[in-house]
Amino acid sequence: VQLQASGGGLVQAGGSLRLSCTASGRTASGRTFSSLAAAWFRQAPGKEREFAASINWSGGNPDYADSVKGRFTISRDNTENTIYLQMSSLKPEDTAVYYCAARRDYYLNSAAAEYNYWGQGTQVTVSS
């Protein structure tokens, strides 16, 4: 499975952005992206990669880090093999490279080590 993230950019504090991550290919066992849980992680300069949001294979039961809860929304369109991260009320501390990821499981998880496939990352910069 290959993941391609897009949608990052420069935005003022309080603004919004929508990130997209489109998948192609299958797992070694033949599973498609639509059967995989997926997530967004982020990594700010000088910090470790951290969990932002995750979603199960069908789009239900999303989970969010406390730092983004109420401001970010994760969703997916399995007909397009794409997940999204709608980000609103952005803050300077949201500045980071955002990575999408998928795991060989139907159900979500917040640990980066549980994810098997990673996109290349897209930069989000929030100015004050």
Structural overview:
The chain is globular, with a radius of gyration of 14 Å. The model has no long low-confidence stretch (mean pLDDT 96). A hairpin with a 7-residue loop joins β5 and β6. It is mostly beta strands. The strands form 2 sheets. Strands 2, 4, 5, 6, 9, 10 and 11 form a 7-stranded mixed sheet that branches. It has a 4-stranded antiparallel sheet with strand order 1-3-8-7, with no helix packed on it.
Which residues sit in consecutive blocks of at least 5 with pLDDT less than 50? none
Q: How much helix, percentage-wise, in residues?
A: under 10%
Strand content: over 45%
The H-and-E topology, N to C, reads as EEEEEEEEEEE
* Overall pLDDT metric: 96
SSE order and pairing:
Blueprint: E1 2-6, E2 9-12, E3 17-24, E4 37-43, E5 50-55, E6 63-64, E7 72-77, E8 82-87, E9 96-103, E10 117-118, E11 122-127
Question: Can you tag this structure with a few keywords?
Answer:
11 strands; mainly beta; globular; 128 residues; 47% strand; 0% helix; 7-stranded mixed sheet
Question: In summary, what is this structure?
Answer:
Helices cover 0% and strands 47% of the residues. The chain has no helices and eleven strands.
